[in-house]
Amino acid sequence: MKYLITFIILYISVGCSKKIENNQIQRIDGSSITRAKLDARIKTLVDSADITGLSVTIFNKDTVAYQKAFGYSNFAKKDSLKINQVFYGASLSKSVFGYIVAQLANEGLIDLDKPLQEYLDTPIPNIQFDRVWRGFHNLENDKRYKDITARMCLSHTTGFPNWRWVSRTGVFQPEVEEIEIYFDPGTEYSYSGEGIRLLQIVIEKILGKGLEQLAQERVFNPLGMDMTSYVWQQRFENNYCYGHTKEEKVIDKDTEDEAGAAGSMETTPVDYSKFLTKIIELSSHNSDVTNLIFAPNIRINSKKQFGPESLATTNANDSINLSYGLGWGILKSPYGQGYFKEGHGEGFQHYSIIFPEKHLGILLMSNSDNAESIFKEVLELGIGDTYTPWYWEDYIPYNMK
Asked: Three-class SS string for 231-244?
């Protein structure tokens, strides 16, 4: 009887400790937070900052340990946001594209440092587009286009602006149809969707396949990302969330019928978590592909990523060795390297960062233009990330504005 009682006590103790352990979300510094505390604090932040909807996913031990949605899918209808709803992925599109290109490079199908022009029979300025404003015709007299490589495109060092109709200081200029090279390719960092789009054009010509087909074959189908695509799918029709302005006004849904590596992807928090889980796993095992993605190609010393301060320099991020790889940002922490990618489009704001050496990370996806104002605190709260360069990202907390 004495042994039976002892066994029962031990059984109960082990069971309780396991429940307590499962209730804890681990952070990079070894500390933890309970799910209940995390839920309560995130909800308070969402309400305080007027964020329409936010989904938070945390990875522990290379798998999803926490995934929850807060707020609304459609503020006007007060529909609850769900983790399996389709979000406009914005620039999360680029991280998937970076993974695809790294696979191609690892297989010898593209040389990251070979000028893109050398893959083409036609000079880049002479490439014809259905939409004329997308062309590069005005670069005919700027021969620097011949120096641009795949590595430069994915590392944002082409010299191109983000988009030709947005100035380097962030001024919207809808009348502008011509593109410029602002500095010698490979010498500076300046985020550019135009560079990503050029690389997509070349990749499609090299392989004779469109981006959507490549993504389905190499990423979405193998990972079971059934609700992810670079073009709008009929199956998304009754399962998507709307974007919202800072005033929480609903933005009409914009659907895309042309795949764009720089920012056309639609995905769900559940699906994109599958992608991040795979990247954490590959990096944890020193994969050749993630070694290519996460090799730093350019150090970043700008005060901010966008706007007027993107042209000013600073040493504020020297302590984290802020850099860029193939479609992903890179930083150094006391707990290993961090690899991040953000997404920002009208009504949608996202951020992800992984720390493979600690086997953890976080994904924030929101359908609100106010969301970035709580990213700093959610990162610190959820995984103890105090290393993301929040000022450089312009993630200014709502209570500091």
From this structure: CCCHHHCCCECCEE
- Summarised one tens digit per residue, pLDDT across range 82-100 is 999 999 999 999 999 999 9
Give the C-alpha separation, 305 to 137, whole Å. 28
Two tokens at 393?
């990202």
DSSP lists the bridge partners of residue 60 as 63
d(CA 376, CA 150): 32
d(CA 227, CA 359): 25
pLDDT of amino acid 16: 38
Per-residue pLDDT at 170: 85
Looking from the CA of 300 toward its CB, the CA atoms found within 13 Å total 28
CA angle 155, 161, 166 (to 5 degrees): 140
16 in any annotated domain? no
- What's the CATH number where 148 sits? 3.40.710.10
Residue 273 CA, chain-centre distance (Å), reads: 11
pLDDT range class, residue 175, cuts 50, 70, 90:
confident
Rg (CA), the chain: 22
Residue 17 is assigned to a structural domain of this protein: no
Distances (CA, A) of 181 to 154, 163, 302, 321: 16, 12, 18, 26
pLDDT of 6 strictly over 70:
no
Residue 208 counted as domain residue? yes
DSSP string, 9-32: HHHHHHHHHHHHHHTEEE-TTS-E
pTM above 0.90, yes or no: yes
End-to-end alpha-carbon separation of the chain, Å?
Answer: 66
**Rounded-to-integer distance, Cα 256 and Cα 263, Å:** 10
Q: Could you list the beta-strand ranges (E) of 79-197.
A: 79-80, 87-88
CA distance 164 to 162: 7
